[in-house]
Fold:
Amino acid sequence: MKKILTFIIALAALPVAAQAQTWNPSAAELQAMQAKADPERGEALFTACVGCHKKDATGRSSGAYPRLAGQHFTVLLKQMKDIKAGLRTNPKMAPYIEDHISDVGEMADVAVWLTALPIPEDRIGRGPGTSVDAGKVLFERDCAQCHGQKGEGDAARFYPMVAAQHYRYLLREMHFIRDGDRGNSNPDMVKVIKPYREADLEALADYMSSLPPPAPAK
Structure:
């Protein structure tokens, strides 16, 4: 335990860019960060974000802001770190993180509060439903090995839950990843969707947005 706490303290003391480039915590270290995080402080810090992400962190069906509620702790933490370090391109969110979430400890506080929030299915922006079957074929062939058969993601490998995410947000981010505009895209995913046509991206987003959120762990 002493070793884990020493790691966390040392990590928080690093310059942000160095943190993002060298951050490779073990599962035990991530669990320690999650256990140490304070959800009440995270909720208070998140008040700076509700104008965009809404109080319940369900985001916007327009696709401008994702559903953060219920997302994996590790995914939320990594994305905040990458945005603050300038590794993920997000000029609107970067100043909010810079001004309101000062270090990795506070990011963990926000992430642990968000991951515990429920996912209300009736607030998810679904796709048109016309290409779900085609999207399922693409998803099962190209995406399920990372994002899970049900779109549940993989917390240990920082793969986000894509089930019950807004259609327009999924479509936007796939465009960014395919076209090299996101900044911190997984190279394996870039390779997979690089040849996708517009109809393929729309079908994949249609299918993923139709997936129900995974049942909460008991």
